[in-house]
Write a structure and sequence with these properties.
Blueprint (H helix, E strand, L loop, with lengths): L4 E4 L3 E8 L13 E7 L1 H11 L4 E7 L4 H11 L3 E7 L5 E8 L4 E6 L8 H6 L7 E5 L4 H14 L2 E5 L8 H5 L3 E5 H8 L7 H12 L5 E5 L5 E5 L7 E5 L13 H14 L4 H15 L18
Parallel strand pairs: 1-4, 1-8, 2-6, 4-5, 8-9, 9-10, 10-11
Antiparallel strand pairs: 2-3, 6-7, 11-12, 12-13
Helix pairs in contact: 1-8, 6-7, 8-9
Pathway: Carbohydrate metabolism; D-ribose degradation; D-ribose 5-phosphate from beta-D-ribopyranose: step 2/2
Subunit structure: Homodimer.
InterPro entries: Carboh/pur_kinase_PfkB_CS (IPR002173), PfkB_dom (IPR011611), Ribo/fructo_kinase (IPR002139), Ribokinase (IPR011877), Ribokinase-like (IPR029056)
Length: 305
């Protein structure tokens, strides 16, 4: 059986408005457009993994409202197996996104059904050896803890995108194979300021690896990323990875999720960490070329082996 990418996480309805600029406190502005799209870090990452060529499966929850069935259908349309997507009474998770003309965004999240992804649902996912399991910070910590334990017991590889950052148990963090964070999140995990440059980011990545994860990826926006591999033969290896420009930036929403999904897909397809990071950067650069999160992932090309 081929390896799978199994994403256990959040799925939201993204309500996105575009504006010329962000409003000041107390200010009212007219928007340029309004859209309702599939979102949630987990769903985005599963969609990106599927576009990158992996067998992608999603485990999560939607509500019994009108948004739930629509999001299920949209995620399946990206080529993701949604048999692990359950329906709860109540509301589906929502994200309220403002995108400025510069392409930058602000996001507010209501967890909805995502707040009820629990250990028993993780157990039903039947993880197996060789799977690449992707987690984020948008479901309860207990659900993530159960997934980390199940993945370790099954012989699967665990990628934790610790976004948003939560107070993760030290033993759970140590059991993660790959930690992915941006520069701000990296600082929060260590209780310090964000790294100011790539040299400092490499030092921070090494410190994060000292917490247990054998491999660390810190994304740095326009400055690219740094990767750190404590599991390589010989001495641990760290490197700066240049950003890739695929064209004018339209919307950065979901770019980080595209990178995580492609990273997982590359590993499931058998690539090493260095090559997988390159594929992650390529997917992230493609995702900023059009509006939306998963809606922009058609630009992600299948990984060539």
């Amino acid at each position: 059986m081929s390896a799978r990418v199994v994403v256990i996480g959040s799925i939201n309805q993204d309500v996105t408005v575009t504006v010329d600029r962000f409003p000041e406190p107390g200010e009212t502005l007219y928007t340029r457009s309004l859209s309702y799209r599939l979102g949630g870090k987990g769903a985005n990452q599963a969609a990106a993994a599927a576009h990158a060529g992996a067998d992608a499966r999603f485990v999560g929850r939607v509500g019994s409202d009108a948004a739930g069935p629509a999001l299920r259908e949209e995620l399946a349309g990206h080529g993701v197996d949604v048999t692990g997507l359950l329906v709860d009474e109540g509301t589906t998770g929502s994200a309220f996104i403002t995108v400025a003309a510069s392409g930058e965004n602000t996001i507010l999240i209501d967890a909805g059904a995502n707040g009820r992804v629990a250990a028993e649902q993780v157990d039903a996912a039947a993880l197996r050896a060789g799977d690449v399991v992707v987690l984020q910070g948008e479901i309860p910590a207990a659900g993530n803890a159960a997934a980390i334990a199940s993945a370790r017991a099954a012989g699967a590889t665990t990628i934790l995108n610790l976004a948003p950052v939560y107070d993760i148990d030290a033993e759970d963090l140590a059991a993660v194979d790959i930690l992915v964070v941006n520069e701000t999140e990296a600082g929060l995990v260590l209780g310090r300021s964000a790294p100011r440059d790539t040299a400092e980011a490499l030092d921070v990545a090494a410190q994060l690896a000292g917490r247990g994860p054998r491999r660390v990826l810190i994304t740095l926006g326009g400055a690219g990323a740094v990767r750190y591999d404590a599991a390589s033969a010989g001495e641990p290896q760290g490197a700066h990875v240049e950003a890739i420009s695929a064209g004018p930036v339209v919307d950065t929403t979901g770019a980080g999720d595209a990178s995580v999904g492609a990273l997982a897909a590359a590993l499931a397809l058998g690539l090493d960490f260095e090559r997988a990071v390159s594929e992650a950067m390529r997917a992230g650069s493609a995702a900023v070329l059009s509006p939306g999160a998963a809606a922009s992932y058609g630009a992600i090309k299948p990984i060539r082996l």
